[in-house]
Amino acid sequence: MKIESIKNRDLKMLVQIHVENFENFFLTNLGFDFLLIYYEALLSMKESIALGLYYKSKLVGFSIGVTISSGINKKILKSNFKKFLLVGVKIIICNPKIIFRLLRGFNKKELIKNDFTGELLSISIDKKHRNNGYGKTLLSAFEKEMKAKGMKYLSLTTDFSNNKSVNQFYSSNGYLIQSTFQLSRDRIMNRYIKEI
Ligand SMILES: CC(C)(COP(=O)(O)OP(=O)(O)OC[C@H]1O[C@@H](n2cnc3c(N)ncnc32)[C@H](O)[C@@H]1OP(=O)(O)O)[C@@H](O)C(=O)NCCC(=O)NCCS
């Protein structure tokens, strides 16, 4: 296994892992094409860190985050507005009600005020390779990259309910619950933070 920066040519593999591992998440429900544009935009930003876990040159896990999370969704949208517009129109035609959630997502209130706090947006290990310590290794490599970019803390959010093993994963890797908050009517989240 090797950990290195994710290349654009691996984006489809990354999106495939996302789709398989984040079933029923809002972003996943927006579809493969949307995720492809989303991750392409994220990877191109100077604020992002994207590490891949490779097994025989195949991507089997990834961790992605940003050094400055404030207004990040708007920046992602602006960075590739035309492509987002095209795919967004298709999504809205198929499901008009989704527009309210899209707008909420892009206007999300800033939760982090500290300039030295990086945000882990997603981490995922292919199901076949879990529980071998790869998640821990990838998270630790990600923390090192964040630290090298001047960050002192790393923060993330994950579901509070029906998510015992992921919450356990972060606790055992030194993350402390900073707050628990209601994201939407049926979703409660834990915000974790760690000094890195
Ligand atoms: C969360 C996730 C990234 C963890 O990846 P992972 O590779 O399974 O993580 P690890 O193997 O490092 O640790 C998981 C467990 O494996 C076991 N483990 C760790 N190292 C091990 C080893 N060398 N041998 C055997 N078992 C080991 C431990 O029991 C560990 O549990 P602990 O965290 O309570 O100590 C993975 O479960 C995943 O992709 N989940 C779906 C996506 C997701 O929900 N991501 C988080 C969104 S916020």
Description:
With 196 residues, the chain is α+β, with helices and mostly antiparallel strands. It has one domain (2-195): Gcn5-related N-acetyltransferase (GNAT) (Aminopeptidase, 3-Layer(aba) Sandwich), CATH 3.40.630. It has helices spanning 11-21, 26-29, 32-44, 72-79, 81-94, 98-106, 134-148, 164-172, and strands at residues 2-5, 48-55, 58-66, 117-125, 153-159, 176-184, 187-195. The protein is globular, with a radius of gyration of 16 Å. It starts with a strand and ends with a strand. The mean pLDDT is 88. Bound molecules: coenzyme A.
Uncertain segments? none
First and last CA, distance: 24 Å
Specify the CATH class.
Alpha Beta
How are the strands of the biggest sheet laid out side by side? 1-2-3-4-5-7-6
Q: What's the CATH topology name?
A: Aminopeptidase
Which strand-content bin applies to the residues? Answer: 25-35%
Number of helices: 8
Cα gyration radius (Å): 16 Å
Outline: globular
What proportion of the residues is helical, as a percent range? 40-55%
